[in-house]
């Protein structure tokens, strides 16, 4: 398991296992920190959490495709920063 949960006082905190090289103290689970943490620590914490979802390529229980061509991944990455609600700003994306 990636995370171990513990209650310290009245505020639940999270102790991160894999991000421990970046984060030396527990972090609050339900409130924002007063100070920021490094981008590497934030990435490691989110990546660790996503590992709990499992591997979609091993999903043999459904009949949906869980793999796509690398070109599809590139297209998604190229357009991830677009605001899809602003249809007048991104007409080609809206059309697709």
Provide the CATH topology. MYOD Basic-Helix-Loop-Helix Domain, subunit B
Secondary structure tally: strands: 3
How many structural units, i.e. domains? Answer: 1
Quote the distance from N terminus to C terminus.
40 Å
Approximate strand percentage = 5-15%
Element-by-element helix/strand order: EEEHHH
- Principal-axes geometry comes out as extended
- Average pLDDT for all residues: 76
Which stretches are low in confidence, meaning pLDDT under 50 for 5 or more residues running?
Answer: 1-10
CATH architecture: Irregular
So what's the CATH class?
A: Few Secondary Structures
The portion of residues assigned to helices is 25-40%
Largest sheet: 3 strands, antiparallel
Name the strands of the widest sheet in spatial order: 1-2-3
Radius of gyration, Cα only, in angstroms? 19 Å
Describe this structure in words.
The chain is an alpha+beta fold. The protein has a single domain (about 5-95), classed as MYOD Basic-Helix-Loop-Helix Domain, subunit B (Irregular), CATH 4.10.280. About 30% of the residues lie in helices and about 15% in strands. The chain has helices at about 40-50, 70-80, 90-95, and strands at about 5-10, 10-15, 25-30. The chain has a three-stranded antiparallel beta sheet with strand order 1-2-3. Strand 1 and strand 2 form a beta hairpin. Mean pLDDT is about 75; it is low at about 1-10.
